[in-house]
Design a protein that fits this description.
Shape of chain A: globular
Largest sheet of chain B: 7 strands, mixed
Number of strands of chain A: 14
Structural class of chain A: alpha/beta
Helix content of chain B: 25-40%
Distance between the termini of chain A: 35 Å
Low-confidence stretches of chain B: none
Radius of gyration of chain B: 20 Å
Oligomer: heterodimer
Mean pLDDT of chain A: 93
Strand content of chain A: 25-35%
Strand content of chain B: 15-25%
Shape of chain B: globular
Structural class of chain B: alpha/beta
Radius of gyration of chain A: 20 Å
Order of helices and strands of chain A: EHEEHEHEHEHEEEEEEEHHE
Chain lengths: 279, 367
């Protein structure tokens, strides 16, 4: 869908969004706050709820990249609806080409999801909870259903969490998020075992070797710009179509409810029956 | 007391995995001298035993005690249908023979405890067949021992066999009888996927759980204390009809605060081009390891390649020799084999607790 030029202010990581916009038609990225008034929307990774509310009331669309902290609430959603603005919170992992491919293969090629396994290791300076929120969202997105059982373990004051989900019909998911790695690059892996096939997206498979004496180093070939292009395209399409974005908010509500059950399971050391978010 | 330079071995039934006996025979200190089984086993079992004896040019004796008594054997290699594991192993131990047993240890807690007691009372060595000497696992152990990742904090294992177990779930027509577990396992011998050969249906945790749980024990030195599990008969009509899992996931709390997890399944031949993804993730205080158990491997592709032929071929495997070697050393030094009766009992207890957790939906203490 094309239409009038859409100008977006990238409040973070300007060069990345500018490069992505160059792949799309009718999208321009501004990186200076001085151009705020002329922009249709803002892209950010961390803003206060009050700031977002102010922007929405100015009819500015808002894209938050990453799990919501203050970026989504029923009140903000209502405000966006009132001012006819798009409020989107995107899990960037969903837009990785590898995850997009796996999603496309479910259920036609891979069948029903039986066991989803995710590993995410990051240095101690990164917040493992942010990664866990993304991983839970990715699992719910891939399965297309809510779990009926949540069990979790925690070590080192939350720097390690392991989440074990059970789904109606027998499906299951295991997620470990480990923030105890040394400083440096992290590691991610996703495998989906389906009833008629399986997919394995693992950093291990995408390592190249660098020889400089001694043991060779493993160097990862990243998935490139398409992740950012995908997010930008989805945001622009939402703006152009003016579609209802409540589904986006509902997805995060579901994820948030699972994370609350995770905390409850860690506290009680028991599996927690899950009935979905409180209405 | 000196030990023999060559250990004479009786193969007590070769109806299931004959690779156990063949594996022991690759070591120059183990010599297969007789195959034996009970006279009352069915004809198909006698036929398999006789075939194995013929291939190895050794006699087949339809009397276990006679073979143990008259062939001057020091070691019994036990691989009958699973229901008879404990019976044959105990009879061998009572006769003073060291025991090499196929997995799983037993089909019940009472049997497992009886076997433990008899092996220890007889003061014979016990080796549960395992995969702890696969080259990549040995490499991981060496890395950890060298301090490459510091002290292990967490270990995660994926253990998938990309095999079918008959038609897919949902394929049974109305009015058709449920699939017979024992009959299927007898037929599955042709491709070696008859690990669950028994009258008692068993899921993947019971049949194959020893392998990944063995890795965890080897690489961390920690026992499992508490387990939470989920399981499903997800893929195969055989498993659904017999109410045993072909897919499972476990969260494990281990000694010293370690955390483990296991994803295991017989997930269908279409799910992997080379037999299944088997992977180990070990996180330590100073770093982490990601290990593909299949490596080293060679990619082999050619015109008209059979669909079922693995595209990645494992090479340089030394698991058989090193297991046999561990038993030889255990006998020589009166030490412990690489997978002794106590370690086997730990795995049995973990699987037992895991299955209970899968039934109840809550974590279960192992010890």
């Amino acid at each position: 869908m094309t239409g009038p030029m859409i100008r977006l202010l990238a409040a973070v990581d300007g060069p990345r969004w500018t490069a992505a916009a160059a792949r799309l038609t009718g999208v321009a990225i501004e990186t200076s706050l001085e151009r705020f008034d002329s922009c249709d929307g803002i892209i950010s990774e961390s803003e206060r709820e009050s700031t977002i509310a102010k922007w929405l009331s100015l009819r500015k669309h808002f894209l938050h990249v990453g799990p919501p902290t203050d970026a989504w609430s029923p009140a903000l959603s209502d405000l966006a609806h009132q001012y006819n603005a798009q409020l989107l919170v995107m899990n960037p992992d969903r837009y990785l080409p590898s995850r997009q491919l796996i999603k496309q293969m479910l259920p036609d090629k891979l069948g029903d999801s039986g066991l989803i396994r995710m590993h995410r290791w990051s240095p101690s300076s990164a917040s493992p909870l942010v990664g866990l929120a993304c991983d839970v969202d990715t699992v719910l997105w891939l399965v297309g259903d809510l779990p009926n059982s949540v069990y979790a373990l925690e070590r080192d004051d939350g720097r390690f969490r392991q989440v074990h989900l059970g789904f109606p019909g027998g499906g299951m998911a295991l997620i470990d998020v480990d923030g105890r790695s040394p400083e440096g690059e992290g590691y991610q892996s996703l495998s989906v075992i389906g009833s008629s096939g399986a997919a394995y997206a693992d950093d291990h498979q995408n390592m190249q070797l660098l020889y400089r004496g001694g043991h060779p180093q493993a160097v990862k070939t990243e998935e490139g710009t398409k992740q950012t292009v995908g997010m930008l395209q989805a945001f622009v399409e939402a703006i152009r179509s003016g579609r209802d974005s409540s589904e986006n908010g509902a997805a995060w509500s579901n994820g948030d409810a699972v994370l609350k059950a995770v905390k409850e399971s860690i506290r009680t050391r028991q599996a927690v029956p899950f009935g979905g978010p409180l209405k | 007391m000196t030990t023999p330079s060559v250990f004479r071995c009786a193969v007590l039934s070769a109806v299931k995995h004959d690779y156990v006996a063949r594996g022991m025979a690759v070591h120059s200190r183990f010599q297969l001298v007789v195959v034996a089984d009970d006279p009352q086993v069915p004809d198909w079992a006698h036929e398999r035993n006789q075939q194995f004896a013929n291939v190895h040019k050794i006699p087949y004796v339809r009397d276990v005690e006679q073979a143990l008594r008259e062939f001057d054997v020091q070691v019994a290699i036990v691989s009958p249908d699973v229901d008879r594991h404990v019976d044959l192993s105990i009879r061998a131990a009572r006769a003073g023979k060291h025991v090499v047993q196929d997995k799983p240890l037993a089909t019940s807690r009472a049997d497992a405890e009886r076997l433990l007691e008899e092996v220890e009372r007889a003061r014979v060595k016990f080796l549960m067949w395992n995969r702890n000497f696969m080259p990549a696992v040995v490499h991981a152990r060496e890395q950890i021992a060298a301090g490459a990742i510091g002290q292990p904090l967490a270990i995660h294992v994926d253990f998938y066999f990309a095999k079918d177990a008959g038609p897919p779930k949902g394929s049974r027509s109305p009015g058709d009888p449920p699939r017979d577990w024992h009959a299927h396992q007898i037929a599955a011998h042709s491709d070696g996927s008859d690990g669950g050969l028994s009258h008692t249906p068993m899921g993947e945790l019971a049949i194959e759980g020893i392998y990944p749980l063995g890795y965890m024990s080897l690489l961390t030195g920690a026992r499992v204390e508490r387990v939470f599990g989920r399981s499903a008969a997800f893929f195969h009509q055989l498993n659904a009809d017999n109410n045993v899992e072909d897919l499972a996931s476990l969260s494990l709390e281990m000694e010293g605060g370690l955390v483990g997890s296991l994803a295991i399944g017989r997930i269908g031949a279409a799910s992997h081009p080379s037999g299944g993804e088997i992977k180990l993730h070990i996180v330590g205080t100073e770093g982490a390891l990601v290990i593909s158990e299949a490596r080293p491997e060679v990619g082999v592709y050619y015109r008209n390649q059979p669909v079922k032929e693995h595209r990645q071929r494992r090479v340089a495997g030394d698991n058989d020799f090193l297991q046999a070697d561990s038993l030889a050393r255990a006998i020589d030094t009166d030490g412990e084999s690489s997978f002794g009766i106590r370690a086997s009992m730990d795995v049995f207890a973990t699987v037992e607790a895991a299955l209970e957790s899968c039934r109840t939906g809550q974590p279960v203490k192992v010890y």
